[in-house]
Amino acid sequence: MTRLVVVSNRVADPGAGQASGGLAVCLLDAMRDRGGMWFGWNGQLVADENEIAASCSRYGRCTLMTIPLTERDHREFYLGFSNQVLWPIHHYRLDLAHFTLEAAEGYRRVNARFADVLAPHLHRSDLIWVHDYQLIPLGAELRSRGVGNEIGFFFHIPFPPPEVLTAVPEYEWLVSSLLEYDLVGFQTAADHANFCRFVCEFLDGQKVSPDTLRVSGKYLKSGVFPVGIDVESFVAMAQDPAAIKRIQRRERNDKRRIYAIGVDRLDYSKGLPEKFRAFRRLLDSYPDNSKPVTLIQVASPTRDDLKAYIDIRHELEALSGKINGRFGDFDWTPLRYIHRSVARETLAVHYRASRIGLVTPLRDGMNLVAKEYIAAQDVADPGVLILSRFAGAAEDLQEALIVNPYDIDEVAHAMRRAIEMPKEERIERHRMLMKRIRQRDACNWMRSFLRALRSCRGHLRGKLVLTTPLAIANAPAKRVTG
Ligand code: ADQ
Question: N or C: which end of the chain has fewer CB within 10 A?
Answer without folding.
Answer: N
